[in-house]
């Protein structure tokens, strides 16, 4: 199935937002070394990139799995596809993080993990870290723990008749959230899985259904919906009290839904302009960008400290640009070949 360029652009935006969030503390370190003031920019709630990713994920699972609904053996086929897509790069970055932690632990912001946390990280199972947080060894993997839950529920839903698949998945997500909200805090892993953010997967699935039923936003209406999404993000950055689990979903998740509607329910058959194609290429590499940018940001910070480049703004520009370049290379030379290799292996 052909990718939708506007969704790839949205994925690029989401990954870049997370990178902007993570580059600023390192820029502050350089500024402090130089004895100059650094005021972080929070014009947008940068971690809302994760909310966008989750809504996009819900949409893509429905959009890209049309050949599986009602098909014999669909759950196994679906899981093989997702494992081949997610596991190689995540396991590689997790292993690299562990190796860096052993070699130069001072460059990391975490303490040494215990065996249970390491095992849970590779299995996408929520565990408590040695720092007391429910997160894997490579902390960015917390989002993938939610993604794997969604994939398992989606695969289970494929066992049902086509008309029941998506309602069943949405219902299971709602039950998890309801159990945690009404009877929580629940023990792990249910306390982790039952956070309201998982409802964003269901929202993305709903948008995919609307698209299948023919919903299209044209011209000014599409621009207005996208602008409304940006406006909600701007308001969320300026509005106190939007950090709680439910408030975050309402504000950031609401913005993500609007942006996804504009991206996923637009007109088809339009040849994208060159800038859109370039951003869509970054969107193709958005998973790599999400996972690799902390390595680039921290590596360039250490290099900047050694050469005396303490100016935070040039560092941020270089680190973010370097992250994009690294992601494109990683996608081209590792992620795509590894995905093809694992898919062939799983198929056998």
Automatic annotation (TrEMBL):
It comes from Bosea thiooxidans. It comes from the Bacteria. The chain crosses the membrane at residues 43-62, 83-104, 143-161, 192-210, 219-237, 249-266, 278-297, 309-334. This is Peptidoglycan/LPS O-acetylase OafA/YrhL, contains acyltransferase and SGNH-hydrolase domains. Residues 5-332 form the Acyltransferase domain. One of its GO terms (molecular function) is hydrolase activity. InterPro entries: Acyl_transf_3_dom, Acyltransferase_3. Keywords: Acyltransferase, Hydrolase, Membrane, Transferase, Transmembrane, Transmembrane helix.
């Amino acid at each position: 199935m052909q990718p939708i360029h506007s969704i790839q652009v949205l994925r690029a935006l989401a990954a870049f937002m997370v990178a902007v969030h993570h580059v600023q503390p390192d820029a502050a370190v350089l500024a402090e070394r130089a004895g100059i003031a650094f005021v972080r920019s929070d014009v947008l709630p940068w971690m809302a990139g994760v909310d966008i990713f989750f809504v996009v994920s819900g949409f893509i699972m429905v959009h890209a799995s049309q050949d599986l609904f009602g098909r014999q053996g669909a759950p196994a086929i679906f899981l093989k596809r997702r494992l081949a897509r997610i596991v190689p790069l995540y396991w590689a970055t997790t292993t690299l993080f562990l190796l860096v932690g052993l070699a130069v632990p001072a460059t990391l912001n975490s303490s040494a993990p215990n065996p249970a946390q390491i095992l849970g990280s590779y299995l996408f199972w929520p565990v408590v870290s040695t720092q007391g947080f429910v997160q894997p060894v490579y902390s960015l993997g917390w989002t993938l723990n939610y993604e794997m839950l969604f994939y398992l529920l989606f695969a289970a839903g494929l066992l049902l008749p086509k008309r029941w698949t998506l309602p069943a998945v949405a219902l299971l997500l709602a039950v998890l959230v309801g159990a945690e909200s009404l009877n929580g805090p629940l023990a792990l892993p249910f306390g982790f899985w039952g956070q309201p953010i998982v409802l964003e997967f269901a929202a993305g699935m709903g948008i995919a259904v609307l698209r299948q039923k023919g919903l299209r936003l044209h011209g000014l209406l599409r621009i207005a919906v996208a602008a409304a999404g940006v406006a909600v993000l701007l308001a969320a950055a300026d509005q106190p009290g939007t950090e709680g689990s439910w408030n975050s979903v309402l504000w950031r998740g609401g913005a993500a839904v609007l942006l996804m509607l504009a991206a996923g329910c637009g007109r088809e058959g339009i040849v994208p302009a060159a800038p859109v194609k370039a951003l869509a290429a970054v969107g193709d590499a958005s998973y790599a960008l999400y996972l690799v940018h902390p390595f680039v940001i921290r590596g360039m910070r250490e290099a900047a400290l050694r050469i005396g480049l303490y100016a935070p703004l040039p560092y941020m520009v270089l680190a973010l640009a370097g992250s994009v370049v690294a992601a494109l290379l990683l996608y081209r030379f590792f992620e795509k070949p590894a995905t093809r290799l694992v898919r062939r292996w799983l198929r056998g």
